Amino acid sequence: MDLDDEQQRKMLDDLKNSHPDIYRDVTPLLNITTSDHFSDLFGFHAQQAFHVEWDFSHQIVDKYQITEELGRGGMGVVYSAYRNNGTFEQELAIKFIQPDFNNLLDKHALFEEAQLLARLNHPYIAKVFDGGEHEGTVYVVMEKVIGTTLNEFLYSTPLSPKEKLLLFSQICQALEHAHQNDVLHADLKPENILIDKQHCPKLIDFNLTQKVQNSRGRGIKELVAYSEHFASPEQKKGDYLTSLSDVYSLGKILHLLFPDLESKHDIACIQQKATQINLSKRYNSVEDLRHDIESVVSSQPITLKQQNPLYVLHCLLKRKPVPSFLLVLLILSGLLFSGLLIFKNHQLEQEKIVAENMMYEVTQLLFHSKGRDVSKVSINSMLELTRRRILSNPDLPTHIKQKMLLAMMTPIPTKHKVISENIEKEQQTL
């Protein structure tokens, strides 16, 4: 539907040869579109919608010299031009509204909408300078943007995800400015987003008919101008439009920039919320949408997932990897140090208990050695009694019992041997 008759026939012929099934499905739809009900689905190019062919190339219109045609759209034809009065050397674009609109829309209303666009002053919106009427045709004088459409730019220029998000954020900024001045775009699509040599966007072709129809009430209900793939559901129905309609179109543009993302990805979540059928479930404004996009760029949590603690922590680690790593390392070190302290404290408590039990056994040994019947008890008997007490004590660890029993099993030198050794040492000294 975006093509002229010759281009359309060529595409249909190619489609018939390559995909005959699709060709059979498409042909009846095109026949319906070109029927008497065509005004219900207003076309996207002027030559499809109107019967009168006209050309202002190389003519002088007021103080402007027209040079060549730049393109045709749903509202009219755009020409390249420059000032003819010698006051300023400036390249311009002049858009002539199709004469057939005179039978549908009030000229005064169109001028009012053009004046609204003239009040917009934003680096990412093509500036409107002037307007007037020539031979019964309303025209608007605009800034001429040297660049390519968004589709062509994406095809010819590889961009990183961050660069795409920054570009999308700039488009959002332009729409925010327009909405703050009570202007809707109402026809946001890649063809109406030009990218200049500095890789900055310029919004063009604001849809004047939607404002005329919905806010002024002077339009005709059957006239519904929109782009099929990027228009909101309420716009396709011909309902009253709000800024949320542009939010929906932005969601479609975002999907064009990132077509193959998992549903759980932040950008995919943003796109899904922006393109909700239910108005109440969309972003409340373009500004809210832009803030989430900028959150993705800066690795901040988006509003849709802020209630998820693990997600918030993931964003923090992604946003500040080095400080986060050091913080995690500090926390782990603290936990390890605390664990060691607890372990050592427990070990000291056990050793204290062992020492108390050993003191108890030694005390018992000394106590029995002072009894009245100690002379009748041999050393070995006392050691055997102590050994049994040690073995039967449940509070002594096994390794302590083994060391104590090993010490008790070491032979004790006899009294005679000790005396002999002492005498020998004294003789050697003398």
Automatic annotation (TrEMBL):
<feature type="domain" description="Protein kinase">
    <location>
        <begin position="64"/>
        <end position="317"/>
    </location>
</feature>
<keyword id="KW-0067">ATP-binding</keyword>
<keyword id="KW-0547">Nucleotide-binding</keyword>
<feature type="transmembrane region" description="Helical">
    <location>
        <begin position="325"/>
        <end position="343"/>
    </location>
</feature>
<dbReference type="InterPro" id="IPR011009">
    <property type="entry name" value="Kinase-like_dom_sf"/>
</dbReference>
<keyword id="KW-0808">Transferase</keyword>
<dbReference type="InterPro" id="IPR017441">
    <property type="entry name" value="Protein_kinase_ATP_BS"/>
</dbReference>
<dbReference type="InterPro" id="IPR008271">
    <property type="entry name" value="Ser/Thr_kinase_AS"/>
</dbReference>
<keyword id="KW-0418">Kinase</keyword>
<protein>
    <submittedName>
        <fullName>Serine/threonine protein kinase</fullName>
    </submittedName>
</protein>
<feature type="binding site">
    <location>
        <position position="95"/>
    </location>
    <ligand>
        <name>ATP</name>
    </ligand>
</feature>
<dbReference type="InterPro" id="IPR000719">
    <property type="entry name" value="Prot_kinase_dom"/>
</dbReference>
<keyword id="KW-0812">Transmembrane</keyword>
<dbReference type="Pfam" id="PF00069">
    <property type="entry name" value="Pkinase"/>
</dbReference>
<dbReference type="GO" id="GO:0004674">
    <property type="term" value="F:protein serine/threonine kinase activity"/>
</dbReference>
<keyword id="KW-1133">Transmembrane helix</keyword>
<keyword id="KW-0723">Serine/threonine-protein kinase</keyword>
<keyword id="KW-0472">Membrane</keyword>
